[in-house]
Write a structure and sequence with these properties.
298 residues, alpha+beta, two-stranded antiparallel ribbon
């Protein structure tokens, strides 16, 4: 029954070009097409019938006029709330743009009219795929990301003794030649291996310092000797090799000492023990007298 009513309405509305030309009465044709709301109510067409009637455009050939769908609906007395439009997106239903994210940086994902619309991007550079300093760039072509050579995307390493180069998409940081001036990490000259150093030879240092003498390559320094390396267990005043005195007193009785930091072989401890300090023989004491019974300097 519903289908029959729909067909009847369509037959009444679908006046052909031939009919309009024969009538040559624009106003009469419009009156025949303009079914009033009263007529539609009498037909009692359900929503299905309205959908079938909702033609996107009606062309009046005799008048040379194109009437939009909304104007046609008003003309025919059709309530737009009863019409269901074709979705613009064509994708799955959605509530917001976030529902349409396809995780492809080369598409613009939107949600117009409740349906997802994925539009391919062209000649754009997605930020999430960009890698700084790799001599390439990622460009969207249609909906696919493609890597292209970009020799302007230099691999900047921040070092003053290296170059930042791109060669046909290949990144490199070759060292500057030896002797180039620099100012980095306390250095002043490039060593030819990419490092900024303070010296290249001992002549650049003030004695007793040498280039690398402190154990740090490329910098002037002096590594002092130790009491143990000098074989000393006590005493103060011996040169440490860097122009400073050694201090070997450690408040211990070690080595061949006869008391704390005194006595014993003069080669390891030149300090002689005072009275009351322990001794084994007279030479251990500053007084040159060691009590043989108590083994104490007197």
């Amino acid at each position: 029954m519903q289908m029959a009513l729909a067909r009847l309405a369509l037959r009444q509305l679908a006046l052909t070009r031939l009919a309009l030309r024969q009538l040559a009465l624009p106003r009469l044709a419009l009156r025949q097409l303009a079914l009033t709301r009263l007529a539609l109510r009498q037909l009692a067409l359900p929503r299905l019938a309205f959908r079938q009637l909702a033609l996107p455009r009606i062309v009046f050939a005799g008048l040379g006029v194109i009437v939009s769908a909304s104007a046609c609906n008003q003309l025919a007395g059709i309530d737009a709330a009863h019409l269901i439009e074709e979705p613009k997106g064509g994708g799955p239903p959605c509530l917001s743009d976030a529902n349409c994210n396809d995780e492809n940086p080369c598409t613009a994902d939107t949600c117009p009219d409740g349906f997802c619309l994925l539009v391919p991007l062209e000649a754009t550079v997605p930020k999430e795929l960009a890698v700084a300093g790799d001599c390439t760039r990622v460009v969207c072509h249609a909906d696919e990301a493609t890597a292209e050579i970009d020799d302007a995307d230099l691999p900047i390493d921040g070092a003053t003794c290296t170059e930042d180069l791109c060669d046909a998409g290949a990144a490199s940081n070759p060292p500057l030649s030896v002797g180039k001036i620099c100012n980095e990490d306390g250095g002043a000259i490039c060593d030819g291996d990419g490092a900024c150093v303070g010296c290249l030879e001992d002549a650049a240092c003030t004695p007793p310092e040498t280039c690398g003498g402190s154990g740090v390559d490329g910098f002037c320094g002096c590594k002092p000797t130790t009491c143990a390396a000098s074989g000393l267990t006590c005493g103060f005043g011996a040169d440490d090799g860097c122009g400073k005195p050694l201090a070997c007193n450690n408040a211990k009785k070690d080595g061949g000492e006869t008391d704390l930091d005194c006595g014993g072989p003069p080669s390891s401890c030149a300090v002689r023990c005072a009275a009351g300090k322990g001794c084994f023989k007279n030479s251990d004491c500053a007084s040159r007298a060691c009590d043989e019974r108590t083994k104490v300097c007197i």
